Amino acid sequence: MTEKDYIIVVKDLFKYFGEIKAVDGVSMNIEKGKVVVVIGPSGSGKSTLLRCINHLEEPSSGEVWIDGVKMTHAAKQLNEIRAEIGMVFQLFNLFPHLTVMDNVTLAQKVIRGRSKEEAEEVALNQLKRVGIPEKADAYPSNLSGGQQQRVAIARALAMNPKIMLFDEPTSALDPEMIKEVLDVMLDLAQEGMTMVCVSHEMGFVRSAADEVVFMDFGKVVEHTTPEGLFNNPQHDRTKLFLSQILEH
Amino acid sequence: MAEQPQAIKPVIEFDDLSSKKSLRDLPWWFFALILIAIGVFVVISSNENYNDAFVFIKAGLAITIKTTLIAYVIAILFGLMAGLGRISKNVVINNLARLYVELIRGIPILVLIFFIAFVGVPVLVDLINNFGLWLSGLGLDFFGSIFMVITNQDISMNSRAIIALAVTYGAYLAEIFRAGIQSIAKGQMEAARSLGMSYGQSMRFVILPQAVRNVLPALGNDFVAMVKDSSLVSVLAVRDITQVARLYAGTTFRFRESYVTLAVLYLTMTVILSLLVQLLERRLRAHD
User: Fold this and answer.
1) Interface residue A86 vs chain B (CB under 8 A)
2) CA-nearest residue of chain A to B207?
3) DSSP string covering A7-34, please?
4) pTM of this prediction?
5) ipTM score of the complex?
6) Interface touch A155/B185, C-beta < 8 Å
7) Which residues of chain B are within 8 Å of residue A82 when distances are taken between CB atoms?
8) DSSP-derived pairing of the beta strands A20-30 and A219-224
9) Is A160 helix (H, G, I), strand (E, B) or coil?
10) How far apart are the C-alpha atoms of B245 and B262, rounded to whole Å?
11) Would you call B213 an interface residue with chain A, using a CB distance cutoff of 8 Å?
């Protein structure tokens, strides 16, 4: 198989921040429709890896291919490729000066060239999908964290992306709001969306993940299935991490 | 300039008036200001000399307001460009913007007004003329002549005054815009970029609307400061209220009437404008 057969290909990816090696030679291939969850202790480089996939962080070396197109050093196509990759952030990053509707329609109009009516129809459908169409005219500051994150997901989905990246989407949420966001993600996974998630929600790993990547010190320690991870972890570091997070 | 003299910046707490606070907390200074204003207006309307001075001097109001407004609009454009330049990752653009800001801020406005009017503009006109000459030398007489039509005399002192104020305030506004843009969380730019927007699109649709809103009060304060600094253009014999007041004083020897009237005119403008800025600030805060 070559770069063309996978929707995401990461080859020998390195990312330095000054002296610090955040990502230390990561390679992985992700097939279309797979849900990959990246776990690991804080500072293990999992968020940086995710941000390198859509080049919010420019890799120091290595390559990223998206759907058969080399993204690295493709300055001109970068924005086009990014439009195909939805991203959901830990802190939601909704645009506070715009209503929910405008948040979801802005990029559709600017990038996809959709008319206002068209964009609003798409937006309303996506807002229905995440369960809050009634908040279309609200401003982000009037929404709960869980609602904001669901709008952020709708905003990304409205661009009809091929891939969705989730960067700790539930880490900034109150416990009672985590479920509403995970439910939306679970639906999305079942619909066949290719997803790469940095998350510590082991319930989500069990119920939705096809593959799990365990990272530590910028390296992939283990790339396995959820069963493999929980029942038969290969490395001591993985076992230690699992024992720490599954203890309570 | 960017720093506001406190005396002219009324910080009236309307809440203080409505809530039951002690007399100590009332803005007495503001009442005093109003009293002074009323007193002066009574004098102006009842005293023939003051009335005469007022009628004469207020003829310069149109120039003062026009000069300030036009210069401010241009300064906003300069400031926005330089502010964006200051945060640009392009080394050349970044350093050019920095050079502009530091150069201007290191020179007193009065000196800048002389410099731009008597050095900057003539040199620029010379450059344009020489460019036309060079074009003609290449055989492009038609295009060359376009650049040679303009002469130093064509540019009025009023225009030079506007250019000088705009260039000067552009540098100060640049820092306001820069601070405003940098006050927006990094995640906003990342979210916009992740949706496929270019840097420019992200700035235009996501960052600048938020940044400008945040700096509106600061922009308003600089407008008030500019109204005051516009008095400096009188050194170019631009007939703004300061120049007209000087003329009036020089011909009638009524110095007291001239300068009291002049001061009151400025004070009236700045107090009203400052109040408007305050209201704006209050409304923006209420929306947060």
Assistant:
1) yes
2) A95
3) SEEEEEEEEEETTEEEEEEEEEEE-TT-
4) 0.85
5) 0.93
6) no
7) 193-196
8) unpaired
9) coil
10) 7
11) yes
